[in-house]
Amino acid sequence: MTIPDRMRAVVLVGHGGLDQLVYHDDWPTPKPKPDEVLVKVGACGLNNTDINTRTAWYSKTVTDGITQAGGKDGFAEAEAAQGSWSNSQITFPRIQGADVAGRIAAVGMDVDPSRLGERVILDPWLHGHGQWHLAENASYFGSECNGGFADYVTIRAANAVPINSPLSDAELATFPTVLTTAEHLVWRADPQPGEWVVIAGASGGVGSTAIQLCLLRGAQVIAISTPQKAETLRELGCSAVMDRNSASLEDDIRDAAGGAVDVALDVVGGALFPPLVGALRQRGRYSTSGAIAGPVVAFDLRLLIYKDLQFTGATITPPGLFAQACRLIETGQLAPQLAASFALKDLVLAQEAFLAKSHIGKIVVTIE
């Protein structure tokens, strides 16, 4: 494979609005380090992390959720020093994009050359030495290092997971972040066969993947979304779909389950947090991996104390979890939820569509 010296890339030049994303057709093509591979990108999926990092929403000075206005224009109160998911500063320029599917185009000197041409899907969690769950020992692809909104990208060879699947690159690019996040989210709450699970943000990439993972575990799922998306979510296997804007959401959840639920999975936060927690049974489990509707909530600690509830967060995934979960893709047990695809040069339009939240599943950019 002939590798050009220059490539196309969308480059983030600073925190702020969509104008901070700049398209180039002459960006230097990266070269793999000894333990890395160079991947020709076929497609790369969009995530909340892309928006959160661009706008520095992770900054503790930002208390709003990710609204369309904030996602497009940024947040005036954001602090660049806390701009990444780990509340540390990132450097610019930065190529974002964590969800890559493609083929290995070149290998570093310490990598087996037989991997050339291999079809891969990239594990976005880059674990370091030491305890894997500590933020200082983990970085994220497309955040602390350059990612996949480009023709080529380098990554450690161990993070380029071979994939044998008839799915297109665009379909495969719907998986990496949502699969690691959803599997970790579900793993932390550990739903059992026959248990009732309620999922907020069910129509998004993480939510729709979590639905499938819970069903594979034999659980019964209640989705929280909008009436317009209810039919699709029922087709995915949900027993019921609740309107997220209902004034009696907690009661709606209990009615659908025939009583209190066992598990609540949340990627939304904000106003949905109280009814989710309120619907949990004694010793119920709540697990969260996002707060796009608002990170600051009011909460009565007596619910946690006297109902013996279990609360867990889910961010940094255990090493090996992604490669293990990829077998579910190869065996067809997980279906891709591809909502739309855009050309790389139209990444700004793709992010606008992402922020509109009218889709089910994932939006990706494809590299022609």
TrEMBL record:
UniProt KW Translocase keyword: no
Domain Enoyl reductase (ER) intervals: 16-365
Record bears the keyword Methyltransferase: no
Keywords from the named record: NADP
Pfam family, one: ADH_N
Protein known as: Alcohol dehydrogenase family protein
Organism from which the protein derives: Roseovarius phycicola
